[in-house]
């Protein structure tokens, strides 16, 4: 699965994108976060405040309970501050 | 309808001209320009960087624009949102709405700005005298969006 990171989350994790093999049994956005948090301190810091995490699957905003599969592109970012 | 996500600056009079040229049915043009401020609270801002999600930015602005066109009698509109590095005084965002009468133009422009603040995937990073930091989202921006529901 391809994952994109933006803004503060990108800086905490230290990369703007990566491809992971989705472990079996992980099938929601929230599940991916739980998995990533086990991959290092940088991920734990990036995802430490759940209310400051927004997600999109295939360029559509979704909630953390949204289903994902290996073929999806997932993006994580903080609340938007444009305008 | 023109939606643009670009690093280049824009010229408001040129954009208005594009919406009104050759038309005599438009009685109202409302516009909003967002600029980079040099002060945030007590801190002086030297530079602002706008990061965006390229695959989603234009698409989300399109959705907001279509909602505005559906809800009010807007003849046409333009939204330009810039990304990249900007200095105080620089233009960040432009919204122009045209209509037969002023009310639809004013209201639709305000609606677009309120939605854009929370739904368009852009993030501001400020460089101040104390270092750089990401701007936190404001809860009152969420409330401003909610009032349109």
Characterize the structure shown.
- The complex is a heterodimer of chains A (83) and B (149).
- Chain A is an alpha+beta fold and 83 residues long.
- Chain A contains three helices and five strands, in the order βαβααβββ.
- A five-stranded mixed β-sheet of chain A has the order 2-1-5-3-4.
- The longest helix of chain A is centred in the middle third of the chain and has 9 residues.
- Chain A starts with a strand and ends in a 6-residue tail after the last strand.
- Chain B has a single domain, classed as Alpha-Beta Complex (Aldehyde Oxidoreductase, domain 3), CATH 3.90.1170.40.
- The mean pLDDT of chain B is 96.
- Chains A and B meet through loops of A and strand 4, helix 2, helix 3 and strand 8 of B.
Sequence-ordered SSE layout with sheet pairings:
The complex is a heterodimer of chains A (83) and B (149).
Chain A: E1 2-5, H1 7-13, E2 17-19, H2 29-37, H3 41-46, E3 54-57, E4 60-62, E5 73-77
Parallel strand pairs in A: 1-5
Antiparallel strand pairs in A: 1-2, 3-4, 3-5
Chain B: E1 2-6, H1 12-20, E2 28-35, E3 39-40, E4 43-52, H2 54-71, E5 74-82, E6 84-86, E7 91-99, H3 102-119, E8 122-128, E9 131-134, H4 139-146
Shape annotation of chain A: globular
Name the beta content range of chain B: 35-45%
| CATH fold-level name of chain B | Aldehyde Oxidoreductase, domain 3
Estimated helix fraction of chain A: 25-40%
Task: Tell me which CATH architecture of chain A applies here.
Answer: Roll
Please give the radius of gyration of chain B in angstroms: 16 Å
The greatest interface here is: A-B, 15 and 26 residues
The helix/strand class of chain B is alpha+beta
Relevant CATH superfamily of chain B:
Molybdopterin biosynthesis MoaE subunit
First-last Cα distance of chain A? 31 Å
């Amino acid at each position: 699965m391809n994952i994109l990171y933006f803004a503060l989350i990108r800086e905490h994790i230290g990369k703007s994108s990566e491809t992971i093999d989705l472990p079996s049994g992980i099938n929601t956005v929230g599940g991916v976060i739980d998995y990533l948090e086990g991959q290092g301190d940088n991920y734990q810091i990036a995802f430490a405040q759940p209310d400051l995490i927004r997600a999109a699957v295939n360029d559509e905003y979704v909630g953390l309970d949204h289903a994902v599969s290996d073929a999806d592109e997932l993006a994580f970012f903080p609340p938007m501050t444009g305008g | 309808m023109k939606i643009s996500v670009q690093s280049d600056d824009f010229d408001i009079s040129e954009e208005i001209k594009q919406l009104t040229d050759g038309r005599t049915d438009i009685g109202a043009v409302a516009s909003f320009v967002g600029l980079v401020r040099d002060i945030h609270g007590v801190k002086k801002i030297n530079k602002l960087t706008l990061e965006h999600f390229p695959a989603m930015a234009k698409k989300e602005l399109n959705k907001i624009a279509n909602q505005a066109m559906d809800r009010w009698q807007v003849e046409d509109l333009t939204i330009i949102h810039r990304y990249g590095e900007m200095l105080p005084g620089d233009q960040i965002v432009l919204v122009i709405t045209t209509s037969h009468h002023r009310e639809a133009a004013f209201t639709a422009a305000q609606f677009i700005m309120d939605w854009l603040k929370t739904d368009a995937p852009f993030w501001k990073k400020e460089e101040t005298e104390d270092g750089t930091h990401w701007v936190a989202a404001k809860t009152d921006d969420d409330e401003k969006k909610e009032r349109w529901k």
